[in-house]
Amino acid sequence: MIEYIRGILSEKELMQVAIECSGVGYSVIIPISTFELLPDEGEEVKLFIHYYVREDAVKLYGFSSRSDREIFRHLINISKVGPKVAISILSGVSVERLVSSVNASDPSALEKVPGIGAKTAQRLIVELKDKLKDFSSNIECIPSSSKKSSVISKDSLPLRDEAFAAMVALGYNDKQVGRAMARVEEVITSDAAVDEWIKMALQVI
C-alpha cells in the first residue's frame, strides 16, 4: 500500500503527472482539482495515493489532500462508478460543490459532468448522503465583485483556446464550453494561466 509520494514534479499535464522519487519516476493520474494546486515542474510535490490494481493494469491515482482521496474512494465503491468516472467527477465538480450538492440533495451539478446522466447523478446523491456528511461544504464560486477586466488581450487568446480544447477533451461539448468561456472572459484577468481558465470555466459550466 502506498500512502503518498513525495518527490520532484518532473512532468505535469492536465490529468497526469510524473514524480521522480529516489531515481524512480511514478506516473500518477490526477483530477483537475489537484492539477490546479501543483507547483511548477522541477519543484517538490506530495500527492496522496490510491493504489489501484486490476487483472490487466496497475495505476496510481494522486490527490492533493487526504479528504479528496477519501471522496474518490467513496465514489469508486459505488456500483458502476470506476476510477475514470470518479476522476471525471472530481475534475468537473469541486469537492466543496460536491459535498454541498449531496447535503442539499441537489444533483444538478453532477448532471453537468460528462458521462453522468440524471439517473446516475441522483443515485450518487443518495449513495453519498451519509458518507460525506462530515466534510466541509464551503462553496467556491466567482463573485460578481471579482470582475477585474472585460477586455481579453490577444496574448490571452491562445490560452483560452488551450483551455477550450482541454475542456472538450474532458467530455464537455462545444456549446457547454463556449458558454462557460464567455462567462469566464467577463471576469478573468489578462495574465491568467490556462489552468485558471479551466478552473473558472468548471465553476460556471
Q: What's the quick description here?
A:
By secondary structure, the protein is α+β, with helices and mostly antiparallel strands. The chain has 9 helices and 5 strands, in the order E-E-E-H-E-E-H-H-H-H-H-H-H-H. Strands 3-2-1-4-5 form a 5-stranded antiparallel sheet.
Please explain how this structure is put together.
The protein is α+β, with helices and mostly antiparallel strands. Helix content is 41%, strand content 19%. It has helices at 32-35, 66-76, 83-92, 95-103, 108-111, 118-128, 157-169, 174-185, 194-204, and strands spanning 4-12, 16-21, 24-29, 44-54, 57-63. It has a 5-stranded antiparallel β-sheet with strand order 3-2-1-4-5. The longest helix has 13 residues, at 157-169. The protein is globular and about 45 Å long. The model is unreliable at 137-152 (pLDDT under 50).
Entry keywords:
single chain; alpha+beta
Strand order in the sheet with the most strands: 3-2-1-4-5
Using DSSP, what is the number of strands? Answer: 5
Q: Can you write the helix and strand succession as a string?
A: EEEHEEHHHHHHHH
Distance between the termini: 37 Å
Task: Kindly estimate the percentage of residues that lie in beta strands according to DSSP.
Answer: 15-25%
Structural class per helix/strand content? alpha+beta
Chain oligomer state: single chain
Number of DSSP helical runs: 9
Q: Unreliable segments (pLDDT under 50, ≥5 consecutive)?
A: 137-152
The main sheet comes to:
5 strands, antiparallel
Taking Cα atoms only, what radius of gyration do you get, to the nearest Å? Answer: 17 Å
Overall geometry: globular
Indicate the mean pLDDT. Answer: 83
Helix amount = 40-55%
